[in-house]
Design brief:
heterodimer, A: 526 residues, alpha/beta, 6-stranded mixed beta sheet, two-stranded antiparallel ribbon, disordered N terminus, B: 320 residues, 5-stranded parallel beta sheet, two-stranded antiparallel sheet
């Protein structure tokens, strides 16, 4: 039988003609080397193989560690190349012997936030459990040999796979699978499964719909087809003993199927988690707010915070940018009086950049409520880039809600606001005149007014005159409308009557729209 | 590996040694903390310690310093902290005096130059010490690099500083060196052990995080907390200790504005010791609750459940 890479010792031909992958390749020689006790003529590996597998030869652990890092990235951890190098150095120092130490050590290097810590713990545990053969009846029993194994010294993908042709593998493997199942040698089964999984490229799995496909491929690689042929022959032979044996094997095959399916599922978790989530997030960013499902809301909140943080950091910084090059003579002289006017310390003229002052007027009636929630969340998340933000909610009438939003987390605040005012149909005219009576005096030429609403006042007086005065007083008015442009001005929509007084009227119903608008607001002030 | 290390490294031989050493210095470290200190030394990386207030982040740095008998250099961060306060400052007064002296001695420096050009040449040839180490006033960061035997550098509450300052720390964190424009780059004599603490009032930059080992210290479990209290408040009755810890652990599961931290448990234990208490009872707890909880609303919320909590604590400790 051909073996791909003799140095790695994938299979050791034994006297009984049965082939087991030796620990030199797949299982690890733990302290003293794990020997798989072979009932039923299964060969235990030659000591030479074990020694070779355990020797930290060229590039120790680099390939297997790379695999783990790939898995970690798949789980959403951001692992840079530099961190990969650090991880390799760390592994050199602590070694693989103690799993807890290894977990702590890599955790220190790879997981940088509480969320990442959780993800890391999860992925580490799954990764190190994956060698266990879960087909057994007693989990404690199966856990024992598995924990001795060291996935880090597993062979790289497909080692030896080319050496064994599909047919050879099928024939040999079938025989071997039969005896493996008959002997119920779990460690050897786990190893065979692992090997077959590598050869069928299970690490490319990305979607849960592929689970069955990969499970079938692995089973075929392990030689299931040949085994089924053998079982058929046994049944046809008709002897009592052969029938019994076939039935017994059928039971074991069922267990194996479950084990493989379970194994593929774990791999899906390992390799595809990050991708699936990233995919989902991209979708969410461009999904209409009104179409969101309840279960997506939490994820949206996280996204909003991330986007807002980026914006806030960018614009908070530019505001402090100094204008080096122009000396502030007066202040320099004053600062250096103590040294007899010798200018040791120079003072430079600084450009003073205003942070935008923002007033947000949100329609919280049914039609726009979903949108309002995210707008408010976004505005309060970029708080540090704004000097002052006041918010108002209206439906039939208008109230100030700044205080509620400052005191409570946004989710609760929104719920509270809705209970205060979010009933009834919207009356824009009424809301604007409320605003004029109570708060118009606080609007200055530095204030940006953001109005969120569909401009559908249920055929009440739109009071465009108030908006005209507001437009004169304020720096600018931005109107965000969750409806598509084609719907503006239809039915009771007063959008086109309000539009002349706004410096910007735009469609805004996804997270991407929102980000663009808020960037624009910050941009304008910087 | 050990042979290659200088004798000073012997205490950092293994993770167990770290755990023992910290224990001797009075710091009961979890396995994770010891691993972090061990790795920080061997990988020469700073540790970024995050976690709620009062779980012993600052204390860790102090204990590492006292265990290794290295000077602890502490830098408290705040908004507006800049390099002249963190890194170095010029001794302006002395520099001024120097210019005065130079003015007096200028004729001897220039000597008998017969024209302006040669006078200038001579002036250039004269070694200028105006910007030199002599006039440099080292601030914490520079001082920790200059310690001949190494040091423990504690950069406390890094999240309170500005983002610019964070960027400015990167050089010292990754290469243990600082660049002073007038002089050049100065490396560490012995790389210090650097610990940064953060209460996560804001998110730190990725660049900073990437350069650090990231250690999160949460609230300890019941057993670890009991060990910590026993080491910090020697002489406390073992049964009382059990009740205290059980009570505090229960408090942490309530919905409170600020849950009590380890430092609060220590204070509470000290007070119990002063009061010669041996058993927790509702009145005693009510009178001393303000040591554990710092908000009126929290105290009110907890007061309503005192009887149950105390009962459970006594049960856990086997007191009837």
């Amino acid at each position: 039988m051909a073996i791909g890479d003799p140095g790695r010792g994938v299979a050791t031909p034994g006297p009984g003609g049965v082939t087991t992958p030796g620990p030199g390749g797949v299982t690890t020689p733990g302290p003293g080397g794990v020997t798989t006790p072979g009932p039923g003529g299964v060969t235990t590996p030659a000591p030479g193989d074990a020694a070779r597998g355990g020797t930290p030869g060229i590039a120790p652990a680099s390939e297997p560690l790379r695999r783990f890092l790939q898995v970690a990235r798949g789980a959403g951890l951001r692992v840079s190349a530099a961190e990969g190098i650090d991880a390799a150095r760390a592994v050199d120092i602590v070694g693989f012997a103690d799993r807890t130490v290894l977990k702590d050590t890599l955790g220190l290097l790879l997981a940088k936030t509480p969320e990442e810590k959780t993800a890391y713990d999860e992925v580490f545990d799954i990764y190190f459990k994956r060698d266990a053969f879960a087909g057994g009846d007693d989990p404690a029993e199966t856990a024992a040999p598995a924990s001795e194994q060291d996935p880090f010294s597993s062979p790289p993908y497909g080692a030896g796979g080319d050496g064994m042709g599909g047919d050879g593998m099928g024939g040999q493997g079938g025989q071997s699978l039969g005896s493996l199942l008959a002997s119920d040698d779990r460690a050897a089964l786990a190893t065979a499964m692992e090997l077959a999984a590598r050869q069928s490229g299970v690490e490319n799995i990305r979607f849960f719909t592929q689970k069955n496909l990969y499970a079938r491929r692995i089973l075929e690689r392990m030689g299931l087809r040949a085994l089924e042929r053998d079982m058929e022959t046994m049944r046809q032979s008709g002897t009592q003993e052969a029938l019994g044996r076939a039935d017994y094997l059928a039971g074991r095959v069922e267990a194996l199927r479950d084990a493989v399916r379970d194994f593929v599922e774990r791999n899906l978790l390992l390799f595809a988690k990050g991708d699936t989530e990233r995919f989902r997030e991209e979708l969410l960013k461009s999904a209409r707010f009104s179409n969101l499902e309840r279960r997506d809301l939490d994820r949206m909140r996280v996204l909003v915070r991330q986007m807002a943080k980026k914006l806030a950091a960018r614009y908070a910084r530019t505001r402090r940018r100094r204008l080096r090059g122009q000396l502030d003579t007066r202040r320099t002289l004053r600062r250096n009086m103590g040294w007899g006017g010798v200018p040791f310390v120079t003072v430079w003229k600084q450009k003073h950049i205003d942070k935008p002052r923002v007033m947000v007027l949100c329609d919280v009636s049914g039609s726009v409520a979903a949108m309002a929630q995210f707008l408010l969340m976004f505005m309060y998340a970029v708080n540090e880039a704004l000097s002052d933000i006041r918010s108002f909610a209206f439906a039939g009438s208008l109230i100030e809600v700044s205080e509620i939003l400052e005191q409570q987390p946004v989710e609760q605040a929104i719920a509270r606001i809705m209970s205060l005012i979010g009933f009834g149909s919207s009356n824009y005219g009424n809301a604007f005149s409320d605003f004029e009576d109570g708060w118009m005096k606080f609007v200055t030429n530095k204030t940006t007014v953001i109005i969120l609403g569909d401009a559908r006042g249920n055929r009440t007086d739109p009071r465009t005159d108030v908006l005209a005065r507001l437009s004169q007083r304020s720096r600018r008015i931005i109107w965000l409308n969750p409806e598509y442009r084609s719907a503006w001005g239809t039915g009771d929509s007063d959008m086109y009557r309000y539009a002349p007084f706004c410096s910007l009227v735009t469609v805004c119903n996804t997270l991407r729209h929102l980000e663009r608008v808020i960037t624009d607001i910050l941009e304008d002030a910087a | 590996v050990d042979d290659a290390l200088p004798p000073g490294d012997a205490p950092l031989r293994s993770i167990d040694a770290v755990e023992r050493g910290l224990g001797e210095a009075g710091y009961i470290a979890s396995r994770q903390i010891s691993t972090a200190v061990y790795m920080a030394h061997h990988l020469q990386k700073p540790i970024l310690v995050e976690g709620p207030a009062g779980v012993g982040k600052t204390e860790l740095a102090k204990s590492v310093a006292s265990w290794l008998k290295l000077p602890l250099i502490r830098m408290q961060c705040y908004e507006g902290l800049d390099e002249s306060k963190a890194l170095y400052e010029w001794k302006y007064g002395k520099q001024l005096l120097y210019t005065q002296i130079l003015k007096d001695k200028i004729s001897s420096v220039i000597g008998e130059a017969d024209n302006l050009a040669s006078a200038l040449d001579k002036l250039h040839a004269f070694g200028d010490v105006f910007f030199s180490q002599q006039f440099l006033e080292p601030r914490p960061l520079l001082r920790s690099l200059q310690e001949p035997d190494g040091s423990v550098l504690l950069i406390d509450e890094i999240d309170k500083s500005d983002q610019e300052f964070e960027a400015f720390l990167l050089e010292i964190l990754s290469d243990y060196q600082v660049t002073i424009p007038e002089i050049g780059t100065m490396g560490a004599i012995v790389p210090p052990i650097v610990l940064l603490t953060s209460n996560s009032t804001r998110d730190l930059g990725d660049a900073l995080k990437r350069r650090c080992l990231h250690l999160h210290i949460g609230f300890p479990d019941e057993r670890l907390e009991a060990r910590i209290i026993a080491s910090r408040v020697p002489g406390i009755d073992a049964r009382l200790l059990k009740q205290l810890v059980s009570f505090v652990q229960q408090l942490r599961t309530l919905d409170l504005k600020k849950v009590p931290s380890v430092s609060e448990t220590i204070d509470w234990a000290k007070i119990m010791l002063l009061l010669h208490a041996s058993v927790l009872d509702v009145d005693l707890v009510r009178d001393t609750l303000n040591v554990l909880l710092k908000f009126e609303a929290d105290i009110e919320a907890a007061s309503r459940q005192l009887a149950g909590l105390t009962h459970k604590a006594r049960q856990d400790a086997g007191v009837t």
